[in-house]
Specification:
By secondary structure, the protein is mainly alpha-helical. It has one helix at 4-20. The relative contact order is 0.17.
Length: 21
């Protein structure tokens, strides 16, 4: 469960980066 939040944040950041590109 501790890794669930970091994974979600990484996914969100990945989506933001893809949109920026």
């Amino acid at each position: 469960e501790a890794f669930s939040l970091p994974l979600l944040t990484l996914k969100k950041q990945g989506h933001l980066v893809s949109l920026n590109l």
